[in-house]
UniProtKB/TrEMBL annotation:
UniProt-recorded Gene Ontology molecular function terms: metallopeptidase activity
Protein name per the record: Peptidyl-Asp metalloendopeptidase
Region entry Disordered, spans: 166-213
Sequence ranges of Basic and acidic residues compositional bias: 166-175
Bias type Polar residues, positions: 184-213
InterPro entries: Ig-like_fold (IPR013783), MetalloPept_cat_dom_sf (IPR024079)
Length: 661
């Protein structure tokens, strides 16, 4: 976990602040329908049978394109889907956007509400063409889930809308005992230990994390992945679980937020919940031992395993220490029924309601038994009127009320219930199970090329490399206003030197003025968008692109000569050189005469600037007859003046000699 908490997944980064400003402006986009019932789908009822908790369901076609504008650097209020129409089995409601969050680089979370009831909420996670969502309206729960089959669906009906019946959910936990993480023992579920975690610091120091962020890692089995609809679908569900849990914290006045640092599949054949949890915790038992390496690599404070065992919803260590901060959840309970947050609550010291746990502590969940009743996240259904009632996306907190009724009981009172106080008091300890230390800010890239007028309709885009960044988003629009490229790229997919990165999209740009932007990313930290940088794509035949020759490899020369191919029609060349410190050592235009390319096929120039030791790179841009060519692909080389064979100084013979040997 990182000491500075700016730019985290649960806070709108600067890259999204403009969205909020636009949302609160007077210019609003029209309400658009998020989905429609699919007709003629080749998805059969058999494709939907994995979930028997639904009272009804229907196959739908989802318009995931409604969310694309939120990721655009030049979005306008009219382009944003700030309101969405949802057809809940014949009842049409309007959801209004509250905020946008980004749990992962490959997804976005749309978080909103319906009307004035504090319980009515909408959370939608979009990743590619997949949408996973949870909707609460009039205390009824709905889910949008991605489904798949072996045949492609020509109508795009790859999603299902479900109305969930909580009475059909599996038990919260396996019967019997819950594992006590504070002492490495198990105690009866009706007499849980409430011992404080003594494995971590009790007061801040300069090396500790602040407690405002709990870094979370989620792994899943192959069986769970397949049941959820594949890797992309499961990853989106993980992001939904994180977003939903953070929303429950915000609802309940709980201070920390979860930050997802890793998600991925583990090689493991499922057993029972207790075995799976024990094996997840074990470091050298031969089961999922690589999870601990991943945990240390990504500095995860807590770890959860999603499985495909519907006998229960979850199991987690209670009052966890750094060595026992593990939980297991059935993938279909994890989000929508809040089991991911519930089990994490156990790790943080939260207990069940008084009907199932009589431990003398304030850390209980709460059941309201008036009318049909309701319960908070840590409460069981057994205490509800009739043995079942709606679970709210709230933690027990006596200072919060719903319809005038408190959502908990004050600490020190009879049947005290305040999960929110417990989670706030243990946040610092849990957040320090693993300590981070890397910066949580990224510099904004500087855009280099294309610039001016170019003849290349598929140009190479170049920008300065940002220290620490692992991914870059390149966003390109041509003169028609069409988005020609919008994608994240890893460093390995780009051509990067020590100081500059470049990428050549395959899309062809129309003639006219085009623009591009670049965004840097690392571990859910975003830079600001760089751009736009404008350039003109010429329709006329013009100046080509130079091919760079030397220097290359390693050179001992600190003032090397740069050589490149002669470009037909070019009368001037711009040589751009950056050294190992990212400093621009040369950036000037030179005539064909000055670059020794009035004859032959090669040009060259030797700048006077001395290059320091390390990796450097250079580029060439040609110009002729009023037209600029595209920048060349950069060429890297290494300056190492301390190695290699020096140049001899000649002494004799000199002058005139009669010696023929």
């Amino acid at each position: 976990m990182k000491k500075s908490k700016t730019n985290r997944s649960y806070i709108l980064s600067s890259f999204f602040i403009a969205i909020c400003l636009l949302f609160f402006s007077n210019v609003m986009a029209e309400t658009r329908s998020l989905f429609s019932e699919a007709s003629g789908s080749n998805l059969s009822a058999a494709d939907l049978q994995y979930d028997n908790t639904a009272s009804r369901q229907k196959i739908i076609s989802v318009d995931t394109g409604l969310f694309d504008a939120f990721n655009a650097p030049d979005n306008k209020a009219a382009d944003l889907s700030n309101t969405l129409e949802l057809d809940l089995f014949g009842t049409k409601v309007t959801a209004t956007l509250d905020r946008i969050e980004h749990v992962s680089i490959d997804s976005m979370s749309w978080i909103g509400h319906i009307g004035d009831d504090m319980l009515d909420s909408v959370i939608l996670v979009k990743s590619g063409n997949i949408l996973q969502g949870n909707i609460v309206y009039k205390r009824q729960h709905y889910q949008i889930r991605f489904v798949t089959n072996n045949a492609a669906d020509a109508n795009g009906a790859t999603h299902v809308l479900k109305e969930i019946d909580f009475s059909k959910m599996p038990p919260d936990h396996p019967s019997g005992k819950l594992p006590d993480g504070s002492a490495g023992k198990t105690t009866d579920a009706n007499n849980q230990s409430s011992a404080a975690d003594t494995s971590t610091k009790t007061s801040p120091d300069t090396s500790a994390d602040s407690g405002s962020t709990i870094d979370s890692m989620v792994v899943y089995t192959n069986s769970a992945r397949l049941a959820a609809g594949g890797t992309a679908a499961m990853n989106a569900l993980v992001d939904l679980a994180i977003t939903e849990t953070n929303d429950s914290y915000a609802n309940s006045g709980i201070n920390p937020r979860l930050n997802l640092v890793y998600k991925g599949q583990v090689s493991y054949t499922e057993s029972s919940f207790s075995n799976d949890l024990s094996r997840l915790k074990g470091t050298s038992d031969g089961y999922m031992d690589n999870v601990h390496t991943l945990r240390n690599t990504y500095k995860a404070d807590v770890v959860s395993l999603f499985i495909n065992n519907s006998s229960s919803c979850g199991l987690g260590y209670v009052n966890a220490t750094a060595t026992s901060a593990f939980s297991v959840a059935h993938w279909n309970c994890a989000t929508g029924y809040y089991s991911f947050g519930h089990e994490l609550g156990h790790n943080q010291g939260a207990l069940h309601d008084w009907d199932v746990d009589s431990t003398t502590t304030c850390a209980h969940g709460y059941v309201n038994k008036t009318g049909s009743g309701w319960r908070t996240i840590m409460a069981y259904a057994t205490g509800c009127p009739g043995g079942n009632c709606t679970r709210l996306k709230y933690w027990s907190n006596p200072s919060k009320t719903y319809s005038g009724a408190p959502m908990g009981k004050t600490c020190g009172s009879y049947h005290q219930a305040d999960n929110h106080a417990k989670l706030n008091s243990t946040a610092y300890a849990v957040a320090n199970f693993r300590q981070g230390g890397a910066s949580t800010t990224l510099a904004t890239p500087s855009l280099i090329s294309p610039s001016g007028t170019i003849n290349d309709t598929t140009p190479t885009f170049t920008w300065t490399k940002v220290s620490g960044a692992t991914h870059y988003n390149l966003y390109v629009k041509d003169s028609t206003g069409a988005v020609k490229h919008s994608a994240w790229h890893t460093l390995s997919a780009l051509s990067c030197s020590a100081s500059v990165c470049s990428y050549t999209p395959s899309a062809t740009l129309a003639s006219g003025v085009a623009k591009f932007w670049v965004l840097a990313w690392k571990n859910n930290v975003y830079s600001s968008w760089a751009g736009p940088k404008s350039f003109t794509v010429s329709s006329s035949t013009g100046i080509g692109v130079a091919t760079l020759y030397s220097p290359s490899g390693t050179t001992t020369d600190t003032t090397p000569t740069f050589t490149w191919s002669k470009v037909a029609g070019a009368t001037w060349y711009r040589l751009w050189v950056q050294d190992s410190t990212n400093a621009v050592r040369h950036s000037s235009w030179h005539s064909s005469t000055a670059t020794n390319c009035t004859s032959g096929s090669t040009c060259s120039y030797t700048p006077t600037a001395v290059l320091p030791a390390g990796n450097s790179a250079f580029w060439i841009q040609a110009y002729g007859s009023g037209t600029y060519g595209s920048w060349s692909v950069g060429k890297s080389f290494t300056v190492n003046p301390s190695t290699g064979i020096g140049t001899a100084t000649l002494y004799s013979p000199s002058g005139t000699t009669t010696d023929t040997t």
